[in-house]
Amino acid sequence: MSSPALFDFFLPCPRGLEAALAAELAEIAARxxxxxxxxxxxxxxxxxxxxxxxxxxxxxxxxxxIASRVLLKIAHRPYRNEQDIYALAAEQRWEQxxxxxxxxxxxxxxxxxxxxxxxxATLRVxxxxxxxxREVSGAxxxxxxxxxxxxxxxxxxxxDCTLYLDTSGEPLFKRGWRxxxxxxxxxxxxxxxxxxxxxxxxxxxxxDPMCGSGTxxxxxxxxxxxxxxxxxxxxxFEKLKQYDVTAWQALKVEALDAKRAARASRADLGIFGSDIxxxxxxxxxxxxxxxxxxxxxxxxxxxRGMTPPVAAPGILVANPPYGERIxxxxxxxxxxxxxxxxxxxxxxxxxxxxxxPDSEFFQSLGDALKQRFSGWRAFILTSDRKLPGQLRLxxxxxxxxxxxxxxxxxxxxxxxxxxxxxxxxSDTPD
Length: 430
Ligand SMILES: C[S@@+](CC[C@H](N)C(=O)[O-])C[C@H]1O[C@@H](n2cnc3c(N)ncnc32)[C@H](O)[C@@H]1O
Prior knowledge:
Bound molecules: S-adenosylmethionine
Keywords: Methyltransferase, RNA-binding, Transferase
CATH architecture of the largest domain: 3-Layer(aba) Sandwich
Number of domains: 2
Largest sheet: 7 strands, mixed
Domain THUMP: 56-167
Organism: Trinickia violacea
GO molecular function: RNA binding; rRNA (guanine-N2-)-methyltransferase activity; rRNA (guanine-N7-)-methyltransferase activity
Order of helices and strands: EHEEHEHEHEEHEHHEHEEEEHEHEE
Helix content: 25-40%
Structural class: alpha/beta
Radius of gyration: 24 Å
Protein name: Class I SAM-dependent RNA methyltransferase
Oligomer: single chain
């Protein structure tokens, strides 16, 4: 019997979560894809490589909570100019994967590429693929940037071009159940990666006191109930000519069965959330309902007055309000400051912010943690490196993470009884 074909996959993820994704992939391979069909590859900034069969690629799409996409490597070669990129794309047997009836989108990402226009390079890849299909089938595919059937990604370094076929379609953080977003929801895959970094596992109490639309809570509940993150959605590979339909059906049936069992379960998940905003809690409830996660306990509470939701210590995780996008609520009025700046496009724009620091709020939050959460471990994601000083707590660890382009830190505070390390507000952050 001939052994099934192996492919090279690359899974992009939020920067800072590469090791967490690699660990998750190894678990997915062991549980769903068959270890023999999976060879772990390098972790690089912003993603993880692996080699495996189609089943491994499909299982990664269905089960990865941390990856943003699963890209299938088609070709890789050094390049010097757009013509080299055109030639590489024109040589590939795209007709094996899709026909001219499918709509197409091409995207390019580059690090230190010498090319002057990435837009032109993108057009050259698109032309090469369309020319190739016209040559072999007599028809050119149409371009659809909004809802393409097939997506091709080109990745350029200073010297090399890699072409990928996207097997995911919509990015994987779109789980297919979120309707109601808060003002600044976390992406689902960042929330899932953070949960893994906290070391939380099902059965340990989990509390988000500024839960907004409930991303941490929904991700945790899906882990606890063994619900595959992609069970509600479709994937790009379903539009491709060759993928292992039998293996996909088996994976999907298994995931649907697990989801049905989860819906029937009356288990107490020990997952709790609160927020000062009743509107946000309504959004969270609607999301949980759609995701089949009705047993998450929610309460309207100002985080300064929060108390542990259960007697046993657990893990507290939150991304508090920050800056201009989303404000701390529940404190006295602040004076609005209006300023005019010049944007990149030289159009003046107005910015409104408030001039009082949030230190009062964070000091009270720190007090609540110290006084009422002994034995808990708290993990707080923020772009504000002065947070430990504001909370008057010394962090036990901090992990750099990117929330989109925003560089953040995940601070960990071990709230051990009687030995909470305090730090003065003036400590210099690094
Ligand atoms: C950055 S958002 C959190 C987003 C959330 N992780 C999600 O995925 O939607 C911050 C949240 O803090 C809440 N908030 C603001 N002030 C608060 C306070 N004093 N107590 C509790 N929650 C507060 C806001 O209502 C908002 O939902």
